[in-house]
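Practice record 12: protein with zinc ion.
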Amino acid sequence: MQREEALEKIAWYHLKQLSRDEATELILEFFNEPLKPSLRQKLNLTAVLQWETHQPPTDLQPGNPIYRPILLEKMKEPFRGATNEYLVKHLKESLGLEVDQVIGELPTWLPCPVCSYRTFAVVGDWATCPVCGWVSDPVQEAMHDDPTGANGVSLNQARQNYEEFEAITQEKLEELDPEAKAKYPKSA
Ligand SMILES: [Zn+2]
């Protein structure tokens, strides 16, 4: 199976698990985010116009098919950087599908400066590494001993902590997904 097809199946599966409130929240997020050209192409004109004015309807119906491409995109996001092996495992274990392999190239994500797993789609956008909890902060990544910033610990301290207990801080350790290490490729 091709990666894109695997992501599509996974997205549909997770879309069906969404509650009405969760779906509404994701659609509202969309109205405050930049609109990627690839998503814009899939959207109905009404949804594009609503986005352009950043005005969701007051009686937003999350089940309306005009919002489906937005939700599918949101469901794919947590799997975009996952390895093919991880996608196979997820298709088998969560979706109950018999899949031998997933093929296709992974996007070239950036390695986390702390744990080296490729968990960042872009540099310095304040995303959180799901493996170690490091928040991508361009200032802290330039000044390795500076604890001021998004992380509360310096990059060097975070690296030391990761070696010791596999998270940048004890608090972060509790929030991390133990599966994340199996999900992302590690940089050589
Ligand atoms: Zn990391």
